[in-house]
Automatic annotation (TrEMBL):
Swiss-Prot/TrEMBL keywords: Repeat
Domain of life: Bacteria
Gene3D superfamilies per UniProt: Clp, N-terminal domain (1.10.1780.10)
A Pfam family hit: Clp_N
Organism: Egibacter rhizosphaerae
InterPro entries: Clp_N_dom_sf, Clp_R_N
Domain named Clp R: residues: 2-161
Record-given protein name: Clp R domain-containing protein
Biological classification of the source: Bacteria, Bacillati, Actinomycetota, Nitriliruptoria, Egibacterales
Keyword Repeat: yes
Length: 161
């Protein structure tokens, strides 16, 4: 499957793993894939999102607010500083893809196949990420003050998921 990815899409997937590792996350989540599309925004899909205010910082802030809200909902005091994540000793790349990221990548392939595309682009990846109806992505989009349809429209296309 990875060989069908366009260069910028392969770079986005690799960058998502780097972002997750930089955050000391144990797995790559769908929101890491979304962040990788806009950070850095080297191609039209990512740039259109940045132009609409969906930047890596906005995504991280929305994710943090959503996380704080979830903690508060179950009675965890969020006014106390949370301990910083500990760095892990690694031998090579060991970051795994979480179910949300795996599902996004599977849907990416499905979208490209359904339209007969030879190459899998960031357009397919973005559509697969934001079209998820479960997991953290819908809450993240809500925290960003947008919807999947609005994100796709800002990027210049509509949902086909």
């Amino acid at each position: 499957m990875f060989e069908r990815f366009a260069r910028e899409t392969r770079e986005a997937v690799r960058r998502a793993a780097e972002i997750a590792e930089g955050e000391h996350a144990s797995v790559v989540q769908a929101e890491h894939l979304l962040t990788a599309i806009v950070d850095p925004a080297r191609e039209p899909v990512g740039q259109s999102l940045v132009d609409a205010g969906i930047t890596s910082e906005a995504i991280r802030s929305a994710r943090d607010r959503e996380f704080q809200s979830a903690l508060s909902a179950v009675g965890v005091d969020t006014h106390r500083p949370l301990p910083s994540p500990t760095s892990r000793l690694r031998r090579g790349r060991t970051t795994r893809f979480a179910p949300s990221a795996k599902l996004a990548l599977e849907r990416t392939l499905g979208l490209a196949s359904a339209e007969g595309a030879r190459r899998i682009s960031n357009r397919h990846l973005l559509t697969a990420i934001v079209s998820a109806d479960t997991g953290r992505t819908p809450q993240l989009l809500e925290e960003l003050g947008t919807t999947a349809d609005e994100v796709l429209a800002r990027a210049g296309f509509t949902s086909s998921a």
